[in-house]
Amino acid sequence: MRKAFLSAAGALLLGLVGAAQAAEGPALPHEKWSFDGVFGTYDRAALQRGFQVYQEVCSACHGLDHLYYRDLSALGYSPEQIAAIASQKQVKDGPNDEGEMYDRPHTLTPNAGRGTRSR
């Protein structure tokens, strides 16, 4: 009985080791990315496509609370393009003369040394 138990446990252990080795699979080739290293660069067109996908799909559920409009200049957008992107959003402002809050298009103001600042 003891011999049968030890042989079953040994077979199980060998099976687990074999399965773990099979799960590792072949070694993956090393990829060379354009953004590797200190002097790496990103593809700006791909970054802008990613932001466009975010705007059209992801922004319905996910917000970018810590992204400033001025940060879009790192994606290659000009100040005019950033202002156009910002103006598509509505912000709550007020109160007006009747004391009520109202929605208005988002605007940008110049900020020396930092590009643009949201307001």
Total number of helical segments? 3
- Under CATH, the topology of the domain at 44-118 can be stated as Cytochrome Bc1 Complex, Chain D, domain 2
CATH C-level name of the domain at 44-118: Mainly Alpha
**Helix and strand run:** HHHEEEE
Q: Which word captures the global form?
A: elongated
The total of beta strands comes to 4
How confident is the prediction overall: mean pLDDT?
Answer: 79
The unreliable regions are none
Radius of gyration from CA coordinates: 28 Å
Distance linking N and C termini = 80 Å
The amount of helix comes to: 25-40%
- Order of adjacent strands in the largest pleated sheet: 1-2
**Could you give a short account of the major beta sheet?**
2 strands, antiparallel
CATH H-level superfamily title of the domain at 44-118: Cytochrome c-like domain
Question: What is the fold's blueprint, element by element?
Answer:
Blueprint lengths: L1 H23 L19 H13 L22 H9 L2 E4 L8 E4 L2 E4 L3 E4 L1
Antiparallel strand pairs: 1-2, 3-4
Description:
The protein is α+β, with helices and mostly antiparallel strands and 119 residues long. It has a domain at 44-118: Orthogonal Bundle (Cytochrome Bc1 Complex, Chain D, domain 2), CATH 1.10.760.10. 38% of the residues lie in helices and 13% in strands. The chain is built from three helices and four strands. It has helices at residues 2-24, 44-56, 79-87; strands at residues 90-93, 102-105, 108-111, 115-118. The strands form two sheets. The protein has a two-stranded antiparallel ribbon. A hairpin with a 3-residue loop joins strand 3 and strand 4 (115-118). It is elongated. The termini are far apart.
